[in-house]
């Protein structure tokens, strides 16, 4: 514990911050592959993992599903899929295979099938009779190996979506009632939230534009402030708050464990056989097949080529060595050079980015990294695997002292040591892929600080709504009645 505190105070952590991202990235993992873009209920959009700031003996894991939800999407508002198996996986021994899986399965119950209404009157709780399309879920904990087993941790209910002041008055109270306590002191919430990801989608998808750097683009425009393209949209979250000693390989807490680094990924699976019945219903059978997965943000979007994206989603992380060539020779770096390194631009240009031999990408994204003394910071072993790695021995950064640029500015509790809701992964990744590491990492490690590459940004540095101070932390969802998307 003292070791980590001393390192934080002295900013002596050594880290290469490279996650696949850049000016062609989408929202973190929203609609990232051809197949999953047609199956939003199974689309794993974001993954977060961090030591809980108000309960530091626990880790909070947030897995978001269903991209870009319109708040006013009635009368059939979005819900979890009853035919989807949602899972959060934890590797704690470095082989990139799950040692613990938290499995969620949902069931929808119609209170009154003879009405088209989602809500028939004001709702004050998740089980209010006026809530017509109620959904409940089961949480199982699966362990593996000789003594592996599947045990039911408990059950929960999903609150309604935030329809509006008539249907869901005092939504915060309704959502608070949906937080459940599971066996072992685990807390859980499943339901709609404001999408915590922030990025300028509109400019990025306009041929890789970054509004603050518009004048440096191959097709220049006037510079301007960024616009959050996820502003106003909701998502569905599965959030767990788990005691640390239930996640480590030696069963010890943050201050005692000798194996503090865990690797996390989330997934969604469907049964391989789907039958469309004549009565309009759908029946699934057969083995479960993974159709979506997510560890680090933005990998499948901009590292994996189009022809392999669906295949990547179906593979387990421990087989990711087959994709290593795309990390070593990222197409994205060449795109940065094409769009932002024109020598005739009168306003100045970004410096050329290396397009081959990017072993740093392999280290950060596929193995984790070691500290200068040889100890592990996020290193989980040599097995290549896309995992969000979290060192649970690193304490949460004190309130008001956290940097949205995480480790890039010496904040050891931030991305890519796990990922907090407020971490600006887009800007971190933009600076890193452009090899603009800044003076600190340049002087400490000799990493390139290609000015002005260290200044690149999409111009969006915060979520559109403030986060909550306690679990489940993500902001309450936008109400359909108040939706700003069409104003």
Structure report:
The structure is a single chain. The protein is α+β, with helices and mostly antiparallel strands. The protein has one domain. It is built from 10 helices and 12 strands. It has helices spanning 2-10, 171-177, 201-204, 299-302, 309-314, 324-328, 331-340, 359-367, 425-433, 438-445; strands spanning 44-51, 58-69, 85-91, 100-110, 133-143, 150-158, 180-182, 186-194, 234-243, 261-276, 282-294, 388-391. The strands form 2 sheets. Strands 3, 4, 5, 6, 10, 11 and 12 form a 7-stranded antiparallel sheet that branches. Strands 1-2-9-8-7 form a 5-stranded antiparallel sheet, with no helix packed on it. The N and C termini lie far apart (50 Å).
Annotation keywords:
single chain; 487 residues; alpha+beta; seven-stranded antiparallel beta sheet; five-stranded antiparallel beta sheet; 10 helices; globular
């Amino acid at each position: 514990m003292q070791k980590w505190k001393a390192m934080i105070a002295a900013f002596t952590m050594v880290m290469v911050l490279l996650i696949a991202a850049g000016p062609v990235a989408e929202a973190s993992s929203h609609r990232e592959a051809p197949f999953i873009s047609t199956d939003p209920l199974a689309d794993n959009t974001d993954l977060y993992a961090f030591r809980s700031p108000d309960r530091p003996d626990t880790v909070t894991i947030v897995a978001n599903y269903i991209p870009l939800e319109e708040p006013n999407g009635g009368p059939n508002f979005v819900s979890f899929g009853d035919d989807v198996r949602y899972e959060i996986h934890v590797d704690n021994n470095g082989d990139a295979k799950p040692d613990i899986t938290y499995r969620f399965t949902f069931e929808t119950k119609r209170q009154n099938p003879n009405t088209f209404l989602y809500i028939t009157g004001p709702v004050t709780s998740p089980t209010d009779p006026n809530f017509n399309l109620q959904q409940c879920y089961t949480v199982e904990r699966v362990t593996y190996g000789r003594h592996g087993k599947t045990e039911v941790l408990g059950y929960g209910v999903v609150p309604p979506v935030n329809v509006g002041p008539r249907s869901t008055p005092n939504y915060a109270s309704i959502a608070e009632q949906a937080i459940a306590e599971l066996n072992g002191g685990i807390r859980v919430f499943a339901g709609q939230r404001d999408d915590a990801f922030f990025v300028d989608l509109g400019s990025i998808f306009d041929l890789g534009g970054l509004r603050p750097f518009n004048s440096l683009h191959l097709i220049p425009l006037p510079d301007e402030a960024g616009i959050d393209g996820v502003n106003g949209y909701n998502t569905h979250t599965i959030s767990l708050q788990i005691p640390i000693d239930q996640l480590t390989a030696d069963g010890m807490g943050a201050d005692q464990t000798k194996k503090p680094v865990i690797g996390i990924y989330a997934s969604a699976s469907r049964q391989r056989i789907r039958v469309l019945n004549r009565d309009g219903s759908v029946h699934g059978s057969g083995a479960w097949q993974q159709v979506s997965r997510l560890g680090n943000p933005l990998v499948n979007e901009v590292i994996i080529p189009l022809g392999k994206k669906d295949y990547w989603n179906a593979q387990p992380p421990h087989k990711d060595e087959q994709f290593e060539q795309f990390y070593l020779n990222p197409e994205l770096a060449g795109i940065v050079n094409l769009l932002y390194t024109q020598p005739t631009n009168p306003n100045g240009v970004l410096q050329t980015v290396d397009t081959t031999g990017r072993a740093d990408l392999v280290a950060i994204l596929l193995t984790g990294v070691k500290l200068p003394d040889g100890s592990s910071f996020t290193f989980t072993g040599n097995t290549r695997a896309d995992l969000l790695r979290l060192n649970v021995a690193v304490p949460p950064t004190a309130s008001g002292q956290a940097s949205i640029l995480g480790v890039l500015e010496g904040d050891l509790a931030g991305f890519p040591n796990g990922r907090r809701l407020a971490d600006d992964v887009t800007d971190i990744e933009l600076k890193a892929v452009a090899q603009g590491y800044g003076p600190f990492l340049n002087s400490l490690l000799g990493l390139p600080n290609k000015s002005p590459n260290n200044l690149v940004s999409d111009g969006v540095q915060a979520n559109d709504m403030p986060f909550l101070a306690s679990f489940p932390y993500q902001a309450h969802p936008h109400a359909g009645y108040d939706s700003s998307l069409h104003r």
